[in-house]
Amino acid sequence: MQRLRCFKSCWQLLRSSCEGAAKQATSSRCYSHDPSSFGLLFDIDGVLVRGRTPIPAAKQCFRNLVDRHGKYKVPVVFVTNAGNCMRQTKAEHLSQLLEVEVSPDQVMLSHSPLRIFTQFHKKCVLVSGQGPVEEVAHNLGFEDVVTIDMVREAYPVLDVVDHNRRPKDFIPPNKDLRPIDAIILFGEPIRWETNLQLIIDVLLTNGNLGNTWSSTQYPHIPVLACNMDLLWMAEAKNPRFGHGMFLVCLENLYKKVTGYDLKYEALIGKPSVVTYNYAELLIRQQAEKLGWNTPVKTLYAIGDNPMADIYGANLYNRYLQASKHTKAKVQAKSCGGGADPTAQSVDDHRKMTSAEMGGTTVAYGSGEDLPEACSSILVCTGVYSRDQQELPSDPAQTVTEQHIFHGHRDFRFDPTLTQPSFVVQDVKEAVELVFQQEGWPLE
Q: In angstroms, rounded to a whole number, what is the distance separating the alpha carbons of residues 229 and 96?
């Protein structure tokens, strides 16, 4: 019951933050008003763009998603694991690339759900990543923010891998820096060695960098990480290292030094369920702008990464089915129905780990009007290609060079969740498929 109350509280915070963002949007965009019951979640990198270059099919696709006045026909939200900018900046960039208007309330970055982690908003947090990380943190509600550069300036002798950045003639004195209460990892930094070294320093000094290392203070201060993508697709022919690779380095360095596992307070971004809960609220807002009176019944998540986009969409679909099952059980019990002998086994099968939920105390059956299903659509213009061999169907099978689990360490290896509902060549074909599934004409 306590978990349920906590979830409802978080959900209301999530809703209010989304509504606040929508009110702040300066867009005067209007929508077509044909009623329907589905929404579209678009990944960006590898689906709509490759680095800074738009995928040709993306522009064609969005011509089908707006009417002749440029008004959206269906609710559209862009869900990306990128997090090195503000939503406004990403919306403006997408508007230019796709040649349709995209507003900030349609954009969800990997760090967006951090708005509901209010227990950390007044604490002193160290942020890691690149871009305007301090501004991003303040925008999310964090009030006391320390950057890696602030740590370097306060303790000049900590960052010494690059000889050119070492103090030259004399060692400057350390400056007082307030104790750090938590660490927020937004995305891969530019100087990995600097961030890895200083984050380890903060963990092993319990946030007090003037102290000596100690691995006896375990567990360490809270760590919240956004974006678990091991790989992502830019202009290069082959995938590039993502923030998930940086996390692998940090986890292994910490364990090598201390003998303990690095623990996460929260893992946010695709494929965590909290990310899709947030995206669904944004879809609901877009449906209201469309003037739809019926709830959105089906979400279609279009992505290029089996371990982020497809795994996440399928995991969220499992969450939706479990929510429906729990609600039906509660209703049956209130009507005096007998207990279902298979209920416990079903619940056990659908139970999710804290990491998969995103670190929040989410409970099924919140009373919210959730969609009925989330379908996953895999495109072949990014990380995935049809030439790749599939993951083994048996989770216990030995991971070989040909069969490698690219998911995060704290997520279960469930190959069934990497299997998309549909596989198509590109995003244009994906939208055409959705319209066909929903019985909508393509103009």
A: 26
